[in-house]
From TrEMBL:
Renumbered residue ranges of the record's region Disordered: 1-33
Source taxon at top rank: Eukaryota
Species this chain originates from: Phytophthora megakarya
Protein name (record): Bzip transcription factor
Compositionally biased region (Polar residues): 1-15, 24-33
Length: 269
């Protein structure tokens, strides 16, 4: 016989309920619902619209790209013009600078050659040093201004007369100074012996100015000056006697032979 208390605690097993799928628990997506409600024509139109949108975006991107490319080309062309202009300016500047350097080096070269040729006056016959003189003459203008005379040959003749007028002529270069682009000035010391004054040795200071022509690339002016008065004044003590020495001597107090003088001066005799 069954105990009533046991019947109260006894529970009749319930039948297992079927398990619902996950999809049954989740609500349907609005997008999915909307798509399901669209017709094929509407879906096709939506797809075509999306494609058209992307095509429009692509065309817009291409348009912007072409604009950037055109701007880049324009900028490059402008830069190229500027670079070409700068190159032209630099070439002109280089040529101008090179011309200036060439002129400076040339006039300096002529000056150095001048002092090499005439460092002892002009003792040797001109024929024996014709090559040296021809080389120096090639740097001189045909119408060379040589102070009291004109032309290179007349200038050389003056040197010859000056050298024969004294003994042991020595010309020393002391300094060279570029005064301007076309003027180079040399300071000099000229030493001579005058036998008429018991072989007295005179040291005279002077200068030689080289005037350069940039267009012709040659020396157009060669002005030599020697202070012969100061050392003689120390010997004679007064200007009257000094002036008497130069009277009829054929050489000026600044050391230049008087034009057309072709014979030896009497100053050193």
């Amino acid at each position: 016989m069954t105990n009533p208390e046991q019947n109260e605690n006894f529970t009749t097993p319930t039948k297992a309920q079927p398990r619902r799928s996950q999809s049954e628990h989740q609500p349907a997506s609005p997008i999915t619902d909307n798509v399901q409600q669209l017709t094929k024509a509407e879906i096709r139109a939506l797809v075509e619209g999306t494609k058209a949108y992307h095509r429009q975006r692509l065309r817009e991107n291409q348009r912007r790209y072409r604009m950037r490319q055109r701007k880049l080309v324009a900028d490059l062309e402008e830069t190229n013009v500027q670079v070409q202009g700068e190159i032209k300016r630099m070439i002109q500047q280089r040529n101008s600078t090179a011309a200036g350097i060439f002129s400076k080096e040339s006039v300096w070269a002529v000056a150095l050659e001048y002092f090499r040729v005439f460092k002892s006056g002009l003792l040797a016959p001109e024929d024996s040093i014709s090559d040296v003189l021809d080389s120096l003459q090639s740097s001189m203008a045909p119408d060379l201004d040589a102070g009291t005379v004109g032309g290179f040959k007349a200038f050389v003749n003056n040197w010859s007369v000056f050298t024969k007028s004294f003994q042991d002529v020595q010309l020393q270069l002391q300094s060279l100074k570029q005064i301007s682009e076309t003027l180079l000035v040399a300071t000099t010391t000229t030493t001579i012996t005058i036998s008429a004054l018991l072989g007295h040795r005179f040291i005279m200071h002077g200068s030689v100015s080289f005037h350069w022509d940039n267009t012709r690339n040659c020396v157009v002016g060669l002005i030599s000056k020697i202070d012969m008065v100061s050392p003689m004044l120390q010997v004679f003590g007064n200007l009257e006697d000094v002036s008497r020495v130069f009277n009829g001597a054929g050489i000026t107090p600044d050391g230049n032979v008087i034009a057309n003088e072709i014979y030896s001066s009497d100053l050193g005799k």
